[in-house]
């Protein structure tokens, strides 16, 4: 299976399970790197960044381990850039910032 096929399947599965809160679509793929746009309302009880981790786990289930390079937050979602991990490289997710909204 190619990376493009794995991404297509992961997007389909993500949208099937999370479609009520947010939808994913691949923006570009280039030499072991790719970007996925996530748009939607997202569940406020779930961590916003958990959706991006979920996508990486879906891809890992298809034989491609990827880590998050950057997250560009948008008003109704985010654009997340991923990079395939090299042999022996470990995946660790650490969001760059945490936003709390108090009402």
Q: How many DSSP-defined strands?
A: 4
Strand residue content: 25-35%
- Overall geometry comes to globular
Mean pLDDT: 84
Ends distance? 47 Å
Number of continuous helical runs: 2
Overall description:
The protein has 103 residues and is α+β, with helices and mostly antiparallel strands. Helices cover 26% and strands 33% of the residues. The protein is built from two helices and four strands; from the N terminus they run H-E-E-H-E-E. It has helices at residues 3-18, 50-60, and strands spanning 22-30, 33-40, 66-74, 77-84. Strands 1-2-4-3 form a four-stranded antiparallel sheet. A hairpin with a 2-residue loop joins strand 3 (66-74) and strand 4. Helix 1 (3-18) packs across helix 2.
Please outline the helices and strands.
Layout: H1 3-18, E1 22-30, E2 33-40, H2 50-60, E3 66-74, E4 77-84
Antiparallel strand pairs: 1-2, 2-4, 3-4
Helix pairs in contact: 1-2
Keywords:
single chain, 103 residues, alpha+beta, four-stranded antiparallel β-sheet
């Amino acid at each position: 299976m190619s990376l493009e096929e794995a991404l297509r399947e992961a997007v389909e599965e993500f949208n099937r399970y999370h479609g009520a809160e947010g939808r994913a679509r691949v923006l570009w793929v280039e030499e072991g790197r790719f970007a996925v746009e996530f748009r939607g309302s997202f569940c406020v009880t779930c961590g916003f960044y958990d959706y991006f981790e979920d996508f990486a786990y879906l891809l890992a289930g298809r034989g491609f381990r990827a880590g998050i390079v950057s997250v560009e937050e948008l008003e109704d979602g985010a654009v997340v850039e991923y990079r395939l991990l090299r042999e022996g490289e470990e995946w660790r997710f650490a969001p760059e910032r945490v936003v709390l909204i108090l009402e």
